[in-house]
Every structure is written in structure tokens, then in C-alpha cells.
Amino acid sequence: MFGLGMFGLGFPALAQNSLNVVSWDGAYVKSQIIGFIRPWEDLTGSRVKVIEYSGGIEEIRRQVRSWNVSWDVVDLELFDATRACEEGLLETIDPDSLPPAPDGTPAREDFISGSLTPCGVGNVVGSTVVSYHRDRVARAPEQLADFFNLKDFPGRRGMRRSPQGNLEWALIADGVPREDVYRVLSTEEGLDRAFAVLTQIKPSIDWWRSGEEAIRLLETGQVAMSSVYSGRIYDAVARGEALEILWDHQVWFYDVWGVPKNGRHTEQALDFIRFATSTESLARQANHIPYGPVRQSSMQLVREEVRQILPTTPERLATAIELDAQWWSDNTERVNIRFQRWLQRPVMVPRDLPR
Amino acid sequence: MNRFSAVVAAALAASPPSAAAAEDEATVKALLQRIEALEARLQQLEAREQPLTPALQEEPLTPALQEEPVVQTAPAESPEMTDAVSGSERITMTAETLAREPDIDIGGALRFNLVHRDFVDSSEGKRGESGLDVFRLNVDGKIDNILVSAEYRFYSYMDTIHHGWLGYEFEDASQLQVGIHQVPFGLLPYAAHNAWFGVPYYLGLADDYDMGIRYQRQDGPWASHLAFYKNEELNSAGDLDRYSLDLVQVGEQQNEEVNQFNARLGYTFGLGSGCETELGGSGQWSEIYNAATDRRGDHWAAAAHVDSRCGRWNLQLQGIRYVYDPINPAGVDSAAVRVGAFGGSYDIASEADVAVANLAYNFKPSVPWIDQLTCYNDYSRLFKDEPDAIDSQINTIGCAVGSGPLFTYIDYILARNMAFFGDGSMAAGGSDEWRSRFNVNIGFYW
Fold first, then answer.
1. Residues A273, A149: contact at Cβ < 8 Å?
2. Residue B62: strand, helix, or coil
3. Beta bridge partners of B282
4. Is the pLDDT of residue A57 over 60?
5. Between A and B, how many residue pairs show a Cβ–Cβ distance under 8 A?
6. Fold type of domain B102-445
7. Are A204 and B272 inside 8 Å of each other by CB?
8. Which chain B residue has the Cα nearest residue A100?
9. Which residue of B has its CA nearest to A1?
10. Where exactly are the structural domains of chain B?
11. Which of A68, A74, A171, A301 has the fewest CB atoms within 10 Å, counting from its CB?
12. pLDDT reading at A310 higher than 60
């Protein structure tokens, strides 16, 4: 009647007024809002509620198992997407349902290798690097090992409160070649070795959970150096902060979109992902935060000056470590339990024992 | 929209032929016009979906996108989220942040003691004793810049407030606290590692709580405290049901501490490194009001301390000099003043020096169920000015073991002429015997 049936078929997004999209914080989510969230809202008339989180799949697991799903789309680290998929917490996504590149190249061929998984559609290649405030260090670090060298590079350190990336760096600083890192980490002796290196600087570590906390640690001078998501630095520099990046042994990784199972807005969520991972959307995001888009076709739409500062330039990849998503998917639970226990164990005599 | 079309169709089908037919016809016509407008809008939107091609690389996309986007962030179940849209300005607060940083924390502890005292016959005869140490409830919170902290304690023989204060945190993270709080004097927060503490505590010169106002700030390596206390924490110097030692009015001793100023300054070498050493000095000046003479005497104390946390080691050294100069009625000996807490009282020398030497090592636990293993030897001594008085000494060797919510102190205490150890006295007289107490304090903290 009146041709209104097309509303539901052509624009499933119009079936509801809002979509809950869960992502990270700071300059990263800003790039997504400008890159494709607002355009999608503008296009569909729907609204997106952007919810920030700092990773992990516990909340997804809780929602999916209770069928009380309020997170419609989630921006996940690849290893989290992999294990969530293996646990049956995410919808599978057919790559053929994704839009082709503007020249007709199918999505399967357009996405770079490893960025399409059964339950996750890649969006960016992110990177964790060491950063420092050049006005607050007596001597600039030149290699990753300097981050662990408190004697020659004094001052506190900021690190993400999770084992991913930290253990890899600890082994690298202890002399393990980057290609052997996960082989070493796969043994108890290797884990012991990594934790032992972290223990050496543990009293000097300030832990952060969200990317913006890391930036604040640097901005306020609470730490001399910090691990930080590389893309956030440029936003801070644009605000006038004298932050520098040490690219040595950056840890790069994929972020992917996933759709929790048992949700009520699955079709709309998939519609959003199709839009968010189009060639143009990924390029627009990259133009606002220097992370590599996962579609090859997007790169030509990324401004030249942005391309120069991506973490994926050959010289920056020379010593880079790819965060092994499958290894972390297989080992996160086990290693995380140990990491949490390790966190609870003080190195120094506590100033305030329970009384 | 489907629901809308269904409603329109239902309305058309249900319209009865009546004198109002003309009016209905106009209504339907208006509805049809509205639907056509909506369809036109839909076609516009569909048309805009297609050309998302290279033109989109140009920035900004639309004027709206030039706005500074501020992300709405809220926990999934937050009421804030229900009304939120992207771009709305909200305080950044993630679900995890909320989970780990509640505005008000309710906590507490339940602790028990297993004790063997060689100076108590029944303890020897029973091969030890056990009992409730304390049940405590804590409230700690921060709402905006307003701070609150309070602790209530129940013992089998008394209950009392341990501390309770309201505070304000300034932009530079300095704090102003009003209420009952810890007096900033000497080694902070404690002058011992063990559960039984040492000489300064039994003089009221460590872990002491009084009623007043305190300002504290940290400027890089400098830590400074200024405080003024109107009186002891309960404003009832005859009440012995208190946690910390104060002058008390018992028997012929009718003194109480009033109008006390405290200042403490510390400098930490190697702040933020794995080897921090604080050097500090403290001063305390107060009046001593005597209820019998209605006159005020004086008290002062000064301390210098070193607190070095280097790797897994912690060395604490402290020297204290104190003087009580009360104005007692004739016939009352001023060589001692009376302090009290935990339902009892005893005398301490009016003038004396104190030395503290504590050494601790934090072991790396070798078993997975132990989170913390700190072992220590804490020694302290009271050098009394009174000629021929026997110094009071206490030495505690032990370990503190943390395992999840459980925290246990295992202490072997040797004391000579100390309060709570038989006939030991912290004033003149007493005994020169060394007494021992083996004390296991098991606590569950939440």
C-alpha cells in the first residue's frame, strides 16, 4: 500500500532510530564519527549512540549469554574478535556482502590479508608505540630497550594494563629477536622471562586503560615515556603537545568490527558495517587519524601527507611486530590470569599494609 | 514507517460513510500528500547513497562535520546512554571506569588473633588463645572534589570511630581535610611494618588520630603537611574507648591535649624510580589542659626520619624527642603523663627520646596462591630522661602474607618494659624482663 514496503526492505536502518556502536576513545572514535558515523546518520536518518570501552569481550559475553544485547556493533581488537567468534558470541559476516571497491574489485580481494575473519571485518591497522614528551626527557630514547632502561633514561613509564604488547616488548628488550617472540612466549620459561623484565620496571609503571589516559600521562608529565596508540599522538601534537614517537619495534594490529549475537538490530548493524568499511569510509577515517585503512582501494583516497605518517610505511615496519591475534586468542585467558596476579604482587615493600 | 502505513490503511478502511465524509476526504488527501513527501525524501536519501565515491575524500564532508565531535560515552546500562546521540557532550565515563571507580566505596575487614603470651599463665596453660581482633567498616569516596573517609571499629570490649573526615581536593591535587584524621608526624602512614606497631604508637606519636583540620600537598619530591587539632578525637578525654593513644583523664592525672599544631616536610630522592628515599622532619606543639587546675601546660615533639624503599628493601629510621610539661595539682608527679586507648590507660615518661629502626624485604612469592610476602624486623626503644628508669624496647620479627582478600601477619614480639606486656612500664619503674608474644593476625578484607 502506497509503496511503503520499500522502507523496510531498502532501508532497514529506518526500522529503528538508533544503533549502539561501541568503540574506543579520544582521537580514534573522533575519526570514526567524522569518517563514517555522522555520514551514516545523515544518510539513513538513524542515530548512532557511540559507547566507549577499553577492549575485552567480557561485556559481550555477558550480553550475548543473557540475550540482553544492547551493544549492536563493537570495534574489537582482532584477537578478541577471534576468541569471541570461537566462543560463538559474534555473528558471522559474509565477505561477499561487503561492498566492492569503486573499480569493482570484490571485497575479498580488496581487504588486505588477515583483515577479514569469519566474524570480523577489518577497519584499520593500528599500532602501539613508545612516546615521550621531548621537553621532559633529558635524553631521547633511540630504541625500545631504552624504555626498559631506568638507569640511563630515568622517569616513570606508562603502560597499558594488559599483557598484549607488553610481554612482546619485554622479550625484545631482553634480546629476543622479533621473529622468535611468540615461540619464546609459548613456553613457561619464556613467560617467566618476559615477566621478569617487566618486574624490573614495575615500581616505575603507571598503568593506563584507555588510549586517552596514556596521552594524559604524557601531557601532564606523570611519566617520562609511555606506550601509546600511535594515531593518538598526532591529535595531541595538533593541540601543541611536544610528543614524539619512537617507532622501533612498534606493535601493529588489526581492529575489526563485530556484531554480538542475539541482538535485535543485526541487519542494521551489518548495514552499518558495510558502510563503515567501504573504501571511502575507511579513507575518510584515515584522513583524520593516521592508521592504515585495511582496504587497498582506500589508500589512493588518503591524503599524501597522511600517508607519510602511517605506521605502515616500509621504514616503520622494518622492526615492527605484528600482534599475533591467533596466539593471543589462544592464550589470553591463561596469560591474563597470570598478568592480573602479577599486577597484585608488589615489588617494593608496600607503604600501606592493611591494618 | 510500516506501522504508519498500516495505521493509515486501517483508518481508511474503518472510516464510516457519514456527513463528515468531506472532512475525512480532506484528511486522507493530506495524509497521502505527506506520504508522497516521505517517499520523495526516501528517494533523495537513496540517491545520496550511490555517489559516495572519490568526492568523499574531500574534507570536510558537510558543515555539520566541522563541529568538534565530542563523544558520548556511558556504560551500556547507563540512563545517560538512553538519551545520547553522537556528538552530544558528556563526561567521558566508560563502563569499566565506573566499575572500578565507584563514587563511594564501602569496605571493611574482619580480623582474628591467635596469640601466645609467655607472661600470662593462662595463655601458657591453654597453649595459646584466640579471639576476635576487630570488625571494621570503611566508607571512602570522592564526589567531584569532595572527599569522604570514615572507619568504624568494633572490638569485643569496645567500639569506636577510627577516623572520619571530609575533604576537598584542589586543582593541584592538594587536599584539605576536616574531621578526625591521622596526625602527620614522623614516618607515614605507619612507623612499623607489623600489626602490633612499635614504641611511637604507644606514646601517641604514630598512627594517632585527632579532631582538626589538615592540609597536605605534594610538589614533585616535596611532601608537606600542616595541621591544627582542637583536641583529641572524641572530645572526651575520660573516654578510653578509642583507637589511638592520647592523654586521658584518669585518676589523679587530669590532662588532655588541646590546640595542637603539626607541621611535616619530606623530600623524596629518586621519586618515581625503583629506589625512593624520603628524608623528613616533623614538629608538634600543643597545650595540655589540666581539668583539676584549669590551667594549660605545654607539649612538643620533634622527629626526623628516613624511609627508603629501594628495590625489594625498605629501611625506616626515626628519631623523636618529646616533652610533656603539664600543670598538675600539687602532689601529682609530673615525671609521667597518662595515656589511654582500647579501654585502658598507662603512664609514659614525660620527657624522653625514641629511636626506631625497621627493616623489611618484600619476597617474590614462589607459590601461586600468595600475592605478597613481606618480612620484617621492627625495633624501637624509648630512652627515658628519668634517671635510673628502665628503657622500654620492643622488637618484632615477622611476615605479612597476602593472598587474595586474606591478609595475615605472623609476628613474634619481644618486649622489655613495654605497656601491654605484663608489668612493663613506659614511665619509671616496671620490669627489665624480656616478654614475648607470638601473634598471628588473620584478616579478611573487602
1. no
2. coil
3. B264, B303
4. yes
5. 198
6. Porin (2.40.160)
7. yes
8. B53
9. B5
10. 1-53, 59-99, 102-445
11. A68
12. yes
DSSP letters along B300-334, please?
Answer: EEEEEEEEEEETTEEEEEEEEEEEEE--PPTTS-T
Q: Cβ contacts (< 8 Å) between A7 and chain B: which residues?
A: 1-2, 42
| DSSP assignments along B184-241, one per residue | --SSSS-S-SSSS--HHHHHTSSS-EEEEEEEEEEETTEEEEEEEEEEETTS-TT---
pLDDT at B87 over 80: no
**Contact (CB<8Å) A34/B69:** yes
Provide the 10 A C-beta neighbour count for residue B273. 19
- Of residues B265, B378, B361, B380, the one with CA closest to residue B309: B361
CA angle B99, B102, B108 (to 5 degrees): 105
Q: Cβ A102–B54 below 8 Å, yes or no?
A: yes
Helix (H) or strand (E) holding B91: none
Is residue A337 within 8 Å of A197, Cβ to Cβ? Answer: no
Question: Which residue of chain A comes nearest to B84, CA vs CA?
Answer: A49
A60 in contact with B at a CB cutoff of 8 Å? Answer: no
Q: How far is CA B366 from CA A12, A55, A338, B370, in A?
A: 58, 31, 13, 8
What's the pLDDT at B29?
Answer: 65
Q: Do B273 and A204 touch (CB under 8 A)?
A: yes
Band of pLDDT at residue B26, cut at 50, 70 and 90: low
Question: Which value, in Å, is the radius of gyration of the alpha carbons in chain B?
Answer: 34
The answer, for A25 touching chain B at a CB cutoff of 8 Å, is yes
CB contact A204 to B (< 8 Å): yes
Torsion of CA A260, A263, A267, A268, to 10 degrees: -90
Instruction: State how far the Cα of B40 lies from the Cα of B307, in Å rounded to an integer.
Output: 77
| A1 and B5 Cβ atoms separated by less than 8 Å | yes
pLDDT-derived band at B99, boundaries 50, 70, 90? very low
Angstroms from A66 CA to nearest CA on chain B: 14
Domains of chain A with CATH codes = 5-123+254-312 (3.40.190.10), 126-253+317-344 (3.40.190.10)
B364 to chain A, any CB pair closer than 8 A? The answer is yes
Lowest average pLDDT, out of A249-263, A290-304, B38-52, goes to B38-52
d(CA A61, CA A89): 6
- Assessment of whether the complete model's pTM goes beyond 0.90: no
Question: A43 with B48: CB under 8 angstroms?
Answer: yes
Q: Grid coordinates standing for B96?
A: 569499566
Residue A145 class from Cβ within 10 Å (0-12 exposed, 13-18 middle, 19+ buried)? middle
Distance CA A68, CA B16 (A): 44
pLDDT in tens, B295-347: 999 999 999 999 999 999 999 999 999 999 999 999 999 999 999 999 999 99
Interatomic CA distance for residues A351 and B10, integer angstroms: 74
Q: Order of strands across the sheet with B344-349?
A: B246-247, B336-341, B344-349
Does the pLDDT of residue B102 top 80, yes or no?
A: no
What mean pLDDT do residues B158-174 have? 96
Query: Cell 634517671 identifies what position?
Result: B387
Q: Residue B141 corresponds to which cell in the numbers above?
A: 569516596
Looking at residue B41, its pLDDT comes to 57
* String of DSSP letters for B346-369: EEEESEEEEEEEEEEEEE--SSTT
In tens, the pLDDT along A158-202 reads 999 999 999 999 999 999 999 999 999 999 999 999 999 999 999
Pairing relationship of beta strands B406-416 and B351-363 according to DSSP bridges: unpaired
